Amino acid sequence: MEKDTEAFVRTLDWNLLRTFTVVVDESSVTAASHKLGVSQPAVTNALKRLEVHVDRRLIERGQGVFELTAAGRRLYDAAQAIRGIVTRLPSELSSSDGELEGTVELTVGSHIHSSALIRTLQVFRSRHPKVTLAVDLLESREIIAQVLDRRIGIGICTAASPPRGLSSALISTERIGFYCGRGHPLFGRNDLSIADLKDEAFVVFDNEKLKEGLHHVAVFKEEQGLQGRIAAISSSHEEIRRLIVAGIGVGSLSKDVVDAYVKPGLLWQLPPYEGLPMVYNYLVVHPTARLSLAEQAFANCLTKLAEEAGSREPDSID
Question: Does 115 reside within a domain?
Fold first, then answer.
């Protein structure tokens, strides 16, 4: 058995595993061939070679069917872990003089505001000037899914409570107020109560749902009877703000980031003014993820600065 294992390891081609993970990620041989920059027959042949090597069927494919077998799922999980190690090798090997180098790959929810994150970017840059920061934007639910699947190393997302199955740290909270734009009938009025919002059309985030990222906003609106017609929906904070400024409807935004739009008269805050709902932003990593030295240093720095800021965890939603 030991000889068989030794032969398996010695003859395994990493490129076959890489091709396999891309096919699974894309759920398509054709899409994988485009992403890898090779022909479709080359991808199909690589899959066949890998299945021969492991002596297992890995993917059930047919007309309208694309599904991993049990063996395929196990191999994919293992290959993801291997891919994480391989892609971080340059960073691990580059710190010859003790100074961190390499890249921190960070995926952030587009609507997140966090002073701890901003402070971390400043502090980390001053401490480790040779490290490159690669920042991508994604919806929070997708960040959680991809960190769980170990396709993302470090994620910063909005969640109703600490995401299950992940190591997480609360990095910030945001107070959410309600606003309208200059062209809206409620703009500029000081005689309003929350009852005046009940029949209004709303501009909403697509994760403004129970047990999703903006769970607490959804609960607040439900309790207050703010269930009017949805005029527009988006996952982008910038687009939600633009739609509200344009007068499309009433919407909720973080009070911490909209003052620059309220003061010049582009946005008008609506009631209520006290007891506003909160959203909770988390740093998330997979508990078995192998982060590079630079990524681990970044995560530690953010966690420490967030703890110093002292945000409070939300109550359980179970």
Answer: yes
Q: Strand pairing partners for 105? A: 134
Q: Rounded to an integer, what distance in angstroms lies between the CA atom of residue 3 and that of residue 21?
A: 27
Grouped pLDDT means (10 residues each) for the chain, 318 residues:
65 86 88 89 91 90 82 86 69 62 90 90 94 92 91 93 94 94 94 94 92 91 92 92 95 87 92 93 91 92 90 66
Q: What is the pLDDT of residue 161?
A: 92
On whether both 273 and 184 belong to a single domain, the answer is yes
One domain for residues 180 and 265 = yes
Q: Could you give the 3-state DSSP secondary structure of residue 137?
A: strand
Residues 156 and 208 in one domain: no
Instruction: For residue 222, give the H/E element and its range.
Output: helix 215-224
Closest CA to 169 of 310, 303, 311: 303
pLDDT for position 2: 44
Question: Residue 283: enclosing H or E segment and its boundaries?
Answer: strand 278-285
What is the largest distance, in Å, between two alpha-carbon atoms of the chain?
Answer: 82
The radius of gyration computed from the CA coordinates of the chain, to the nearest angstrom, equals 24
pTM of the model: 0.72
User: In this structure, what CATH number is given to the domain that contains residue 247?
Assistant: 3.40.190.10
Full residue range of the structural domain in which residue 305 is found = 100-167+282-309
